[in-house]
Amino acid sequence: MRKRRTRNPRVLAFIEEYGHRVKDPRKLIVRIAEDTIKSVDFKSPPPPFRPEDFQDFFGIKEIAEKDNLSADAMLDACGNGYVVHVRKGLSRGRRSFSIFHEMAHTYFVKATKRNKPYLTKREVERARVTYSEEERLCDIAATELLMPRKAFAAIIQDAKLSWHFIISIAEAYEASLEATVKRIGELYEGSVFLIARWILVDRVYYQTVLACSKELMFMSGRWKEKAHRPLDAVRNAFDTCTNQEEHASIPVRGKIVDFKVQTMYSKQKESDGVAYTLVTPVEGESEEIGSI
């Protein structure tokens, strides 16, 4: 994790408020989110971790759905607390993540009030220009609150990856499929794997790698967000609108390794569909894979 220089005054206030010995805001926001979970009295044993259970801790008086909201969710001050407005029609996973993201902003609001109650004109402008830094940290916090790393890692550490397993985890945590996949990419330490999303638009296939083990990072460089010739399983999935599975022999540093490619198809309005591929080694290839 490369250290970045913090310039946002609200993030600096956050570090001053909570940092103590931890000065990296990304590590700090993870620790604060973990402490938050320990402080919450859950109505029923998690998972799932629902935003409603965190309302009292964050001082959220109401979570209200609203039509025509310019963002997925917005945080507004309300007396001595806050209201989170959420756009109507969001999926359950996207709704939860968006609310947790807005809740995380209160860390910075409270820290700024205590440590930098009066920002100079220059600091206000700097906060506006570097606002994306706070947004990234709120995304990290939302992920930690929705899918806490210790509990999540304990579930996936000895598992064999399959779409059935990944979907069951997403449902258990009430998270979106892609958020779950990315979390697996961060924490999974089992066999090598690669998970990608394919979108077909006007007969052109576009692929994006969502998660990848370190051993296959060299492959993800070829599969950035660009037009790409699809594997047979992907093409068949789009042609038949069904899930597909195939074996693919992929060169890995001078060796031909046999992988299983599980492709899951989903119809979407904004394109000709979307497919997700899970690439894992075929049983019996562990010695070959281990030498990568």
How would you characterize the largest beta sheet?
6 strands, antiparallel
Task: Going across the biggest sheet, name each strand in turn.
Answer: 6-5-4-9-8-7
- What is the gyration radius calculated from CA atoms? 21 Å
Helix content: 40-55%
- Following the backbone from N to C, one meets helices and strands in this order, namely HHHEEEHHHHHHEEHEHEEEH
Question: How many angstroms separate the termini?
Answer: 23 Å
> Any idea how many domains?
2
Unreliable stretches: 223-227, 284-292
Count of distinct strands: 9
CATH topology of the largest domain: Arc Repressor Mutant, subunit A
Q: Give average pLDDT, whole number.
A: 82
SSE-based structural type: alpha+beta
Assigned CATH class of the largest domain: Mainly Alpha
User: What oligomeric state is this?
Assistant: single chain
CATH architecture of the largest domain: Orthogonal Bundle
